[in-house]
Amino acid sequence: MLVLTRKMGETITIGDQIRIKVVEMKGNQVRLGIEAPGDMRIYREEIYLKVQKENQMAANWSLDDLENAVGFAGAGKE
């Protein structure tokens, strides 16, 4: 892991399209401003991990699971 020290208002650049700027420091928190292409997904890590977990669970569904869910949902309808 690359570790950098930045002061308030300073920026780091990743590649040609991503800039991260320290916009506020308050107590033990740092607020960052990120400039990146609009099609690039940017997440807080805890959200990214949650999305990954949900995608993994969705990928593990089988056709039988879907058919069972549809059968269960339609069981009370006449």
TrEMBL record:
Pfam families: CsrA. The keyword Oxidoreductase does not apply. A translational regulator that binds mRNA to regulate translation initiation and/or mRNA stability. Usually binds in the 5'-UTR at or near the Shine-Dalgarno sequence preventing ribosome-binding, thus repressing translation. Its main target seems to be the major flagellin gene, while its function is anatagonized by FliW. It comes from Geobacter benzoatilyticus. Keywords: Bacterial flagellum biogenesis, Cytoplasm, Repressor, RNA-binding, Translation regulation. This is Translational regulator CsrA. Belongs to the CsrA/RsmA family. It is found in: Cytoplasm. Homodimer; the beta-strands of each monomer intercalate to form a hydrophobic core, while the alpha-helices form wings that extend away from the core.
